[in-house]
């Protein structure tokens, strides 16, 4: 088959690779219904992770099981499944505590920007639906695999509550899903920090009540103004840069909580500043597995439409253009059609 390989920064190719096969008895092979490009794929694409050599790309996926290893019990060929980008056994102490992304056996999905993919730890990772979803459900189901699950975790980690106030820092796909999650979890006031008209519109569609276009000290002052000088009790940091973390801390009220899901690049925290700010913080790779059955249920009931975050759809063979469009910020998130 053909699959997506990153050869060097900026050099993504759709080229022939060996077909995936069962390597361990706990593996499953799925036929992808659709896949997509993650904001985090842009780090190696831009050469910012220091990797070298060709690597398989893609960790967001949904599709139909075609084969399972001898030890797999919970999914079977023919079932439609969604899985987390974090692969976990879902039985170890960390999984049982709801932190599947710190599973004792954790692995990270790769190779999903392809027509077929191997999913290790299938029992703990894949969630099957009762029947095959309609075609129009696929983008929404796909979103649950990472981008929605990560935005959801940002809101949960930030302790968004009914009637509360949330600020979302970052208007990328994860930030927009953070807005959706804050809305679903009952926040009354959702302030999205965004400078781009198309993203502002999407943020409003997902439930933002206010938009703050300013950044830095001005952005913090604007949020303070909107919150009676107090700041927000829940802040979702969905970028991972020093400036965005500073923004998150600046808008969080004392006793408030910051959920941070942007992989930190160049972020360092000042102990004394943290101490006197009195902020709770929880972040990390999202334990999507904890939320997946609930999120898939909300999608199937039609109560959320996270797939609206995909503003570019391309055939998988044009994956290189998908990366380019996201790198140049012409697209928020690219869905790749598997024809
Ligand atoms: Zn585990």
Give your account of this protein's structure:
- This protein has 339 residues and is of the alpha/beta class.
- The protein folds into 2 domains: 2-146 and 287-337, Quinone Oxidoreductase, Chain A, domain 1; 151-283, Rossmann fold (3-Layer(aba) Sandwich), CATH 3.40.50.720.
- The chain contains 12 helices and 18 strands.
- The protein has helices at residues 42-45, 93-96, 122-125, 138-144, 147-157, 173-184, 197-206, 216-226, 242-251, 271-277, 288-300, 319-327, and strands at 2-8, 11-16, 28-36, 55-56, 61-68, 80-83, 86-87, 107-108, 116-119, 126-128, 165-169, 189-193, 210-212, 232-237, 252-260, 280-283, 312-315, 334-337.
- The strands form 4 sheets. Strands 3, 5, 6, 9, 10, 17 and 18 form a 7-stranded mixed β-sheet that branches. A 6-stranded parallel β-sheet has the order 13-12-11-14-15-16, with helices on both faces.
- It is globular and about 60 Å long.
Keywords:
about 30% helix; 12 helices; alpha/beta; about 350 residues; seven-stranded mixed sheet; single chain; six-stranded parallel sheet; binds zinc ion; Quinone Oxidoreductase, Chain A, domain 1; Rossmann fold
